[in-house]
Structure formats: structure tokens, C-alpha cells
């Protein structure tokens, strides 16, 4: 890929990026969230088309209009979310759309045999072609995705955060698989947050930041420290609101609280404090927030609110206890997209504390809140789906402000939000803390995590990996999150 | 990184879609006005108040059924049991009253209670046992039909009292200018008012949100199962009221409710309500029912007997929904 | 890969219906025997299988539609229409049987094509599209026919009345249709694409399946099956009947039979074997009640309960599986 640029709706997310992969090479792409990795991968796999620049495969210039064309050109991609049918067998999934036939019927024997060969070729004999995909573990499903790509004779394989959903022992198997693919001459673009992996697997590393390529280095010449500096070093420091002086009393305490996804956790949320939660995706950050909010409740340990034991078993109970949760999946579970701005902002008030009379006053105050958080919309009756991400998030905020919660849980509060709205949301969050709320903020963006938090906990594998002060370094957070022993520079 | 949805072009399309697309009542209003004009040309005295009231009286049961069905559909479900419920209610009432005027009001209460109960069962089976509402209410349909036949031994027995039939047939007489105001129209107005109020209330707004995105409604603190169940109860109650009215001017037979579930769903969809939930208004649903009734009246006037009427009905529905769908896409 | 799940024989929605069928046969057989009758007597078996045939053929077609994530509410009217087309084209003459069959195939196929196009090209919800098409046909039928019309020659009535041993020819036809359907669904590329389309439209599309085309073909097949059922009913009745489909409740009952057989209403899971089981289960329940001389209408109640209970059990098993998976 040469000189690739891409902008969405006037916002440039990728500019003049060059990247190349040789046969049999693992080329790692690292960078923070928002650095442009996903966009680059989507261009390479035909999901998006570049605004500028060009793609060449084996020297031939190609234009990929859609994923089908990318497949035909030999580019396979393994998404974080699998494109598999859980009710069908491995073989049926691998050959979906290209089933071999014999005398007009699907040649199931050939399909199974070919799938078995492919599985064997990647050393995954434990997966059987006749297994139903839904019964397989995540790692095995990933193998199926890889085999599906191989069955298309992929010469270039893009792996997007392949270890995000895997347990430790499964990662080893993935490593082995990647090395086998490499040995077969397949070029691999390996996108990851986890530096340890990158150093284990890749021969070259490209660092992206803010949509630009910072550097491409041979892995042999690189050190984790240098990479982290490339990833995080930024020219202009963003503005963050001033932090709290002294935090107040503990509002929420967890003692040994855990569930199926969380190991026992001890934690305090303090009044007036923004507690940042760092960690990789799948490290249990969201599970923690969701357990606090009663979505998937704690099943063990103690949780207290204001010194009284509580254990919300549903979001409704949590809301009524004064807890609010801003989900990371705004469109999937945050908003009712066909409803108006006003109705979405009123949703929590109406759903958790319904009334037959006196709704008018509430509506007036929510209108005022929408104005106060500066939602830009054609009007409060506009369907919320037509708002920008930033304005949508402000609508969600207004919804919770109306409930005057004392505990706020933010999961990636500024994901997919432009810079201007981001600063506004940061100020709103800080303002809430200043008024005495206890705030928990999950963020994958290190500058945000460090800029906003008074205190930081980092999660790894469903447990707290450690606690850091609000002025910790990005390196410190990364090393706790990835579990790489790392000297914190004094 | 997330890529945001395009804001520019979609925002432009929004105003048009808001007025004409899925969920809007504008198309059904246009169709209704055209049909009313056509009816007026064909039968000039249609607009005399008594004739108009008589027309509304005939339309009342379907409008009430459509209003009930709306609550279920907008929450993302179906209620296929209403037709058989109407039949069951009429047959039950006839047998229990058996011509005895004294039994009228207790039986009316029983009919209403039974309707609500059927709705409650539909709702609980759907939300607690996770049976798709299509199947739940289909099962209920089979159960009600079978139970009524079994209970009566194959043919309706008994008779409705005159007091019972009065609700569907008669009205307040001697009103100046208007002539007779049918009770059915009064009941319709009260229920329509209640339905509109309910949809403007917190319950109604949460119901819409549940149909639109149940996960968001839950995370906002809503009782998703409870709200959906109430929708079924409303539908059952509306079916009971419709049965009382239909029993009045129809008569007792096993055919009284046949096919009404589909007619009601058709009316709701014609009124711009989207199957799958979250879009459309109860006013639209009721106008859809009125439109359907006007269409049948017009076809009648034009001498298209009941026969071809359903063909025209089918055509209009397909056209209305297709146009709505195409508009939503562009 | 140590997390590999142990493979137990799965009793799930697709084979659960056969288990239920077996148990119903045993319990029903005992009940009927203590009552002094016999569930497996020649007469009762014949009428049981006879009844199963008509619904069964329609349900096989409906299985295609539901597997693809769609459904067809027009089948009842297609049955009535095709019974009339068959009987009127034959008009009692032996020589016109073949043209009549061809006409039925053409008309029912065309109706399926219209259904498919409405759903895929005009993006009309399948419920509304097929309901609307059903109303159109209903209007035509009511306009044109007051009662039975046409007549089928005696030769064609063999289909409705002959039998091989205790097994009616019509039932063999049903099994034949089901067998072909089984091959198509499980062994053809189209069948694989059909299930993928119903399972996840986006995954199917991303894998290169032309989902619109799949849905159109699905609806043609579904309508063709209704046409075959129409032929059978014409043969059985000796004439075409404008209300035979609607009065038989073939639209909703065929959906019920499919779902009873374990095919998920949302599509993507299930199969024709389950549908055969579902149809037989409904027929056996009918047979038992007939033999016990229970009020004939009460069986309708039992049907309703059985269908809802079956789906509730499937849903509960599914939920337990999800919970187990989440905990793992």
C-alpha cells in the first residue's frame, strides 16, 4: 500500500500511510486506539476505498471495491468479530458460498476432506470438520476463520487483534499457527496492542499515530520502550480539565466482588473522584462496570453503596439506587435510534421512575439539560439517529444527568467522537465529580485515561493488575495492562 | 476507532422521511381523504351526521382492535389471537346470558376480565418462557377456537340479552342535529382518548423504546418484560370490547371474529406502523383501521361485493407498504 | 484447544419432536387399548396418514420459507386456487391431467415468484407481502366462485384414495416431497445458502451468497408445495374448492407444524425431518383423540398447548446452553 489516505466526512483519519508486506513476513501494526489501524485494515480488505494512494499486490495495482474482490485478489481478513454461522459445521462455514459439488449435489465428503486438510495444515487437528461452530471455543472459531481465509488461497492475511478474545494458553496455539502460515509464504499484517506478542511474532513493526505512520522498524532493532515512546509521544497536549484536589469519602466499595468473568475485586469509588480503568479489551473492564450496574451482576463478594450492602440484580435496581452507566456500544444498547432526542434523553426518567402525572416539569428540566450539555440537533424532536456521535453521547449524558446519579460508570465515553465534543464531554465528566459524584471511567485511550483520572486501576485477565496515581506515565499503564515487566523510568 | 454514520445527506433526507416514510401517518391520511371524497361523490348523504355516525359505529370494533394490536406491534410483537378471542367472547357471553337480562352486566365484566386474562397469558408466555409472540398467540388462537367449540359442542348456544346488544346497536337518542349518538362511538372515543394518552405517557414512550431497542430500554432502567406484557393485556382488553360491540350488531356465530387478527394487523401497518416495533403512532393505527373500513364501504357502494373487496384490500396494502419501504430506502 | 466440549448426543429441537412422537405413540396406544380400541388399526391408521399428507406437503414448503428467515401466509389461498385450476382444467377428462398439473405448477410458481420479488426487491416485510398476496387471491376466489367447481377424472382420484397396504398414496407423495426437500436442503448448494441466509443474512452475503436470489427461489418452492397440496385436495374432493385452504387453516397450521418440528421461527436452524415429525405428531394426537372419542374440537386446544409448550421447551434449553457457555 502506498501513500494511502482516507478521510471520513471531512475528518482525516489516515494520511499518506505507506506499508508493505513480503511473502512469509509478519508485519505488525501497532498504535493507540484511534491511530488509524482499523481504517487501514478495512482499506486493505476492500471494506473502504482509499481517497488517495494506491494498493498493489505482487506488484500489480489493484482496486478493491468490496470484500469479495479483496478475497479474489488473495487478501483475507480475520476480524475481531467472527463472520461465522454458529449453527453450521466447520466445513459448511469454511466453504459457504463456494461449496464443491458432485453430480449437482454438495460433495460433503470432499468438503470435509478439504477442510480437514486445511485444519491439519495449520496444526489444528483437534477441530473436526463436522463440529458445529457454536460449540467451539473462541480460539477454535478463530482457527475456522483463518482456515476459511486459507481456503480462498489468501496470500495476505490481515489479523485484527487476534488475541483479544483468547485465554493465555490459546495464545500459544495462535502463535504456532501464525508461524506455520509464515512458513507457507503467506504475508501477515498483524494488528495488536500487545507489544509482547508483536515482539514474539513479527519481523517488522509499523507504528501508527493520529492517522500517520510514525516509523517502520525491524523488530530486531526495536525495544518496547522505544515503541511505546513512538506510540504515545504527541506534539500538542490536549486540554483536560483540572483534576480534583482531595477526593471525598468512599461511596461504593467492593470486597472480593466477582462473577463468571471477574476474579474477586477489591475497589473503592470515592465521591468527587474520577477513577480511571485501564487495560486491554477483554480484560474485564466492561464486565466490572456492567456488574456494578446489575447487567451481569456480581455473584460473589460484597458491594456496598454509602456503607449499605447492595447488589443490583438489574439495571433498574442500579438506576434507582443512583447509579448510571454510559455504555461503549452507543448504537447497540445506548440509544433507541428511531426515537427523538428528547425521548432518548427522558428514557431513564420515564423507564426507571415512571409517573402518570407531572411529566411536564420533568420534560422542561430535561430540555434545559439538553441545552446545557449543548446538544446540536435540528430540534429536540429530531430522530437521534441523525446526530453525530458526539451529540448522541451528549443526549445519553443528559439522560443520566436528569436522574442526578451519585455514581457514574463511563465505558469509553469519547469513542467515535470528534475532538471538540470530546473536550466538552471531558468537562461534563469532571464537573459531575466536582459536584460530589463518584465517577468510574473506562478508556482505551491513554492520554484520556491519564488526563482525566485522579486515580487509575489497570485490569488484566478479569482481575486488577495494579493501581496507579493520576499522574502515572503511559508506559506504566501499558506495562501493567500487557503484563510486560517494564522498568518505569524514574 | 469508530467510523461515524454520515450526517450530511441523511440529515437532508430526514425531513422527508419524517413526514412520509415509515412510522408517519401522512400517507394514510392522504389515502383516507381520497377515499372519503370518493365515498362522498358516490353517496352524497354520507356526510349527514346520522349517516356518518352510523359509519363510525360500524368502524368502531375494528378501530378498537387496531389500537390494541398497535400496542403489541410497536413493542415488536404480534397478537394473532385477537380474532379467536372476539369469537370466544361473543360465544361465551351468549351462552352465559342465555337471554337473561339480569346476567348482562356481570357477563360484560366477565368478558372484559377474560380478555385481559388472555392478554396476560400471552404476555407472560412470550416474555418469561421466551416463546416468539407469533407462536404464543398462534397457540392461543388454536386453544381459544378449540375451547369454544368444545364448550358449546359445535354450535353456539344461548342468546345475548337485549341490554347486551344495546351497546353495539343503540345510542343516546334524540340528540338535536346528530340524531342518535351510538354507544359504540362513545366507547370508541373514550378508548381512543385513553390510547393516545397512554402513548403520550411514560409507559407509551418506554413501550416505543422497547420496540426500538430493548437493550437500551433495559439499560435505562426499564422493565422490558413488564411493558411488553402490558401491551398484550391492552390488546386482549381491546379485543373484549370489540367483541361486545360486534356481538351487539353482528350476532352470535363462530364466524364473528374470523380473520380479524389479520385485518387488525393490516390496519396497523396501513397506518404507517412498522412491524418489528419502535415506529408509528396509535393515531396512525386507528386511522389505518378507519381507512380500511372506508375502503370496504366504497367498494360496497361501487357494487364490488365483499368478494373482490379483499383483493383490492390486498393490493392497497402491498402498494402502501411498498411505497413506504422504497421511500425509507432512498 | 483443551476446551473442546465433550460430544453428547444432542437432544435438541430437531430430534426432540421424534422423541415426543414416540412417547405419544406409546402412551396413546396404551390409552386407546385400555379404552378397547386400537390406535394402529387399519382404518384409523389410514385416516391418520391421509390427514397428515395434505398439511405435510404444505409444511415442507413452509419449512423452506422459515429456514430462510421468511414465512408464507399465502399458502392457504394458493391451495384453494390450485385445486380449482386443477379441477377446471381437467374437467373430468383423463387426457387433461398433465396440462392441469403443468398449469398448477406454473401458477403456483408464479405466485411464489411474486412473493419473493415483493420481499426482496420491494423490501416488504414477508408477513405483509404474503398476507397481501393471499388477500389478492382470496378476492379472486370469492369473486369467481361460489362453491366447488370443475371435476377431476376418476383416474386422478387414485392420488386421493388409493393406498399401498395401509399407506395412502398421498402419504407416499408427502414422504416423497419431504425426501426431495431433505436432499435439497441438506445436500444442495442452494440448501446450504438457504440456511446461511436464514442464520445470518450479513454473513451469508459477505461469503458471497446471493441472498435475494435464495429468498426468491425459496418462495417459489414454498408456493409449489402448496400447489401440490392443492392437486391432492382436488383429487380427494373430486373438484376444486375455493375455501378448502382457508378453512383447513393451512397457513397457520403449516407454520405451527414447522415450528413444532424444531425449526426456529427466526430461521437458520432446523430441517425437514423435524417438520415431518411435527406433522406426524399433530396427526397422531388427532388420531388418539378420535379413537378415544374425545370431543373433536378439544384436540384443537391440545394442539395449541403442544405447540406453545414445545417452543417454550426449545427456548428454555437454548437459554440454559447460553448460560452454561457464559459461565465457562
UniProtKB/TrEMBL annotation, chain B:
It is found in: Cell membrane. It is a multi-pass membrane protein. Keywords: Cell membrane, Membrane, Transmembrane, Transmembrane helix. It comes from the Bacteria. InterPro entries: ABC_transp_permease. Pfam families: BPD_transp_2. The keyword Cell membrane applies. Its main location: membrane. The chain crosses the membrane at residues 20-41, 62-83, 103-121, 128-151, 181-199, 225-246, 252-275, 282-302, 308-326. The keyword Nucleotidyltransferase does not apply. GO terms for cellular component: plasma membrane. One of its GO terms (molecular function) is transmembrane transporter activity. PANTHER family: ABC TRANSPORTER PERMEASE PROTEIN YPHD-RELATED-RELATED. This is Ribose transport system permease protein. The lineage of its organism: Bacteria, Bacillati, Actinomycetota, Actinomycetes, Micromonosporales.
From TrEMBL, chain C:
GO terms for molecular function: transmembrane transporter activity. One of its GO terms (cellular component) is plasma membrane. CDD domains: TM_PBP1_transp_AraH_like (cd06579). Pfam families: BPD_transp_2. Keywords: Cell membrane, Membrane, Transmembrane, Transmembrane helix. Its main location: membrane. It is a multi-pass membrane protein. It comes from the Bacteria. It is found in: Cell membrane. InterPro entries: ABC_transp_permease (IPR001851). This is Ribose transport system permease protein. It comes from Asanoa ishikariensis.
